[in-house]
Amino acid sequence: MYVQYKPKRGWLGTIFQVEILQGMALTLKRLFSKPITREYPDIRPVIRPGFRGQHALVRDLETGDCKCIGCMRCAMVCPSRCIRIRSHKDKEPGSRRQIDCYRIESLRCVYCGYCEEVCPVNAIVLTEVYEYGSYDRPSLYFTREQLLANWDRFVEEKGADIDNYVNPFWRPRGLAEADLPAPKRLPVSAEWSGEEQVVGRKWRQFHAAQQD
Q1: Which pTM was predicted?
Q2: Burial state string for 131-157 with b = 16 or more CB within 10 A and e = fewer than 16
Q3: Is 169 exposed, middle or buried (0-12, 13-18, 19+ CB in 10 A)?
Q4: Mean pLDDT of 58-71
Q5: Mind listing the pLDDT tens digit for each residue in 125-150?
Q6: Can you tell me the distance from the alpha carbon of 147 to that of 127, in angstroms, rounded to the nearest whole number?
């Protein structure tokens, strides 16, 4: 990443407040431009790969339960401490940990995606569902059952594509495949395969090239 700093402001710029004049010039320029209005919900936005929306626990197709193994990595890496997990392990040798409670306080979440990246089995995901507003706070405290229901809703909206669905955050960029656990060695789109993320105008050019 290259960081470009502005040149140091001189005494003339301090007196005449050049930044304010530049801002007013930009406002004046945009004042007479044609407004762009998206008629939502008739016209819905295009959701880009890696969009971080509603939280969900991925349901295992074999067991019908969540894939979580109770490793606590997501709770430890979460910067807002919005994830709470309680689990236990059976006395039988070789048994995996059983999840008693998995809660996410979405109102505190900063949607950084760290929980997705560190999960070794891709059990947690920020889906592409963005319409889940509410007028009461308790409905945004997602329990384990609600998180599984969120995944079912996402599967229903995604349709047949869910069989080949791979969230880009499940395959962290910049890491060699040999350094990743087996469940995270997943194919991702060319947009997410390199070190740099394609965003903004570059994303439009990349998307147009993919359509050709």
Answers
A1: 0.72
A2: eeeeeeeeebebebebbbebbeebbee
A3: buried
A4: 88
A5: 999 999 888 888 888 999 999 999 99
A6: 11
